[in-house]
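Bench notes, afternoon.
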Amino acid sequence: MRYLPLTDQDREDMLARIGVPDIDALFSDVPADKLLKAPLDLPRARGELEVERILGRMAGRSVAAGSVPFFVGAGAYRHHVPATVDHLIQRSEFLTSYTPYQPEIAQGTLQYLFEFQTQVAALTGMEVANASMYDGSTGTGEAVLMAHRVTRRRKAVLSGGLHPHYAEVVRTLSRMAGDAVVSLPPDLRAQEDILAAIDDETSCVVVQSPDVFGNLRDLRPIAEKAHAHGALLVAVFTEVVSLGAVEPPGAQDADIVVGEGQSLGNALNFGGPYVGLFAAKAKYLRQMPGRLCGETVDADGRRGFVLTLSTREQHIRRDKATSNICTNSGLCVLAFTIHMTLLGQEGLTRLAEVNHANAVLLADQLAGVKGVEVLNDTFFNEFTVKLSKPAAQVVEALAAKGILAGVPASRLLPGAGLDDLLIVANTEVNTDEDRAAFVAALKEVL
């Protein structure tokens, strides 16, 4: 057959050559509970027209984020993206751009990557930034691996306020490498004693602020304790707009800063592609993963841009590579950079202030609803409420009323006893009418 050319004998020969008994052995590293026990319950084969009709009906069941009051966050946020951003990134010279292997013909790509790095370094308060990661979660995993290389230790301590998906990525990478991970219990009010978990075997401490429950954290005491034990502080964020209002991690002595840049220039897009931000102190520059673009001059003294560091396996020997990241999420980076340039420092600050003010308004209104308790003392544009009913049920009931209310904590942390907690985000796109509709519907449901 044209598209299935291998015979059973071919497969047996390949398995014998690599020394495994069967195909299942190729998946031995995947946890047993993550493997399917049987094929998916899907129709076997349909024509193209039939498939379009089926998928169209399925898509029609979804509620678009922009069509109803939307208060969902927990790592992916709905913000207004100016039309200018989409217009510029669809220009042919940008839309088709890829890895700038030849700097002499990729000056435009290299320049906007350089500008992007400059913006990320300024936002995070760090000395150097790379030309991006896949997203915030994989960037966090890379930050932990980088800390292991710097400290020559193999144990990471994860805060209970770290986004569970980010923590799971770290645990997955660590399990494959045989590294140790200490994951603290969920920390609803930023009251965990993370300092007690730091010892002389610790490679890094990973702390998110604002954390997954919305709490703002003071990173200075954690950095001080980590450094006293020869460990690094990895500061994480999921909402980059918060850096327009909150003191940057670099000013709090973080060693590595990593987070998600989706909020600027990039729509929700059903969960991706997104763009990971990664910055560090200059002394750790050569242990950073990915690429770093630099500015130089050509033979005639004209300004130009190059790949200063490309510590990935396609550029140097595999055993010397700091990562195997094979893309810089270039189009998402460009969208981020254009949006950030349109805002400027003053615009970002104003945007952050509007986000915070909207969230405070909503928190005050929800606090007045019987059966609702706001748990946060501090927050940016996201906070956690405790409900008198299971949050997942409340979310479904509100969705039926045309309100996308937030993310149940039980969805992120199943089995952790957080069934009554709802994580709510409120950005600049929400109006007074949206908040009023949310509050009124929640009163009915509760």
